[in-house]
Amino acid sequence: MATAAxxxxxxxxxxxxxxxxxxxxxxWGLTVLALGALGAFIVLPLAxxxxxxxxxxxxxxxxxxxxxDTLSAIKLSLLxxxxxxxxNVVFGVAAAWAIAKFQFKGKNVLVTxxxxxxxxxxxxxxxxxxxxxGAQGWFGEWLSDHDIRIVFAVPGIILATTFxxxxxxxxxxxxxxxxxxxxxEEAALTLGASGWQMFFKITLPNIRWGLLYGVVLCTARxxxxxxxxxVVSGHIRxxxxxxPLHVEILYNEYNYSGAFAVAxxxxxxxxxxxxxxxxxxxxxxxxxx
Amino acid sequence: xSISFKKPSILPGFWPAFSYTVLYLSLIVLIPLxxxxxxxxxxxxxxxxxVVTSPEVVASYKLSFGASLVAxxxxxxxxxxxxxxxxxxQFPGKALADALVDLPFALPTAVAGIALTTLxxxxxxxxxxxxxxxxxxxxxxxxxxxxxxxxxxxxxxxSVQPVLADADAELEEAAASLGASRWQVFRLVIFPVxxxxxxxGFALAFARxxxxxxxxxFxxxxxxxxxxITPLLIVSKLExxxxxxxTAIAAVMLTASFLMLLAINALERRTRRFMVMG
Lengths: 289, 278
Known about the structure:
The complex is a heterodimer of chains A (289) and B (278). Chain A has 289 residues and is mainly alpha-helical.
């Protein structure tokens, strides 16, 4: 009797699953359509980059990458990401600590303000720094008197990139730290840990995968940002050209295989980013269990 | 003052973290952004109005707004289909397909721009099949729509996917056992649950599309009055050292972005409440 009573819901569960399952024709039809759309919209552009990059053969590809202007673009892109990502990491951790662990007035406003750079057009993100530091800008005269270049030079590129990638780490950490609560930190403090001990032994290990996730997204965007950097860079070959700007210059010079060769480097970074992202999503899910 | 502002807590470091957050936010974001509005105030209103309502700029609003709208709608349809298939069905390569959805987030916009352009020119992999049908994509407004759909698609998929995965199976089962057809279940039970998420996805895709630059300028061809998007006009004003003109257009765009940000926040709050209630 008892086993029969248990079997009844099981049967209905299987029946219910059958109800939720679409007929095979619909299932296959929709799957083919969806994969076709992903193929046409996403896989083809990616494939096109690599096919065009190698269109003139491997030696031409390697030559395009070894070109001095390309190398200096790689160096500049790494420098820019190397400065702006750490800045935003420190900010992201501080903001998440204040927002996730404490209750204060105006918190929602602060969270919305942090999101602003995502809502602003990249072109406008570059323009604002031209308005402040450009020749006709607020500090333009003072800067030129002291022979300091910010816009159309490396500092402007770093500033614009920092603006554009500003929310990534904070946005990742705030919900994560909110969901973790403060019990472990409070326990550490009661047991006599100092503030920094608590942070490095409890908080940081707890958020490490989420933090890394934010860093990966932030770095990818910092290396790939185009619009904002294009406005502040001044496009000086070999000096203020990041990788994406170098792609544009080569493309506009009708050097397609060169442009796609450099673009393929950025595409490899994008694919690595996606792989790391999936891995970290899986890791954070593991941690939640 | 501090007591009423912040609830007491035994955790340390609120004031340093909070002060640093506000300081850094002001230095990197708020003060620079205010420059756009302060700068536009210093020019005469008549001149500003003239700039932002000149025929070339108005044509660019129409293109940016219209193409973003169409791209958002296409993203909603295709994105919903992709999310549905990824959540509901099992097939080989599903994890790979799921990972690829994020590619437009990760691929630099300039790379996307030149890749899409080569695909859709007359001799491109896709353009060569569309050209005989009389469909031109590259260097037309349609090309702008294609680029913006590429950018917008992941926003819709990633908004809808979790809602679809969490949707209550019992509701569907109840409807089906009460005699609803599959199509009725979809229309009356499933669709209302994902509608707020679709709307949020659309708003995110639309907002991003309005300001998008890198992926569009290559495929658009940038013909005056025809395929110039608004962000491009800001760049071309800057290249002519017309700072006041660039700033005026930027102020219009910023206002539009802020309105979209507020709308998205409201939508997301509603979606969350909806999900908690469900």
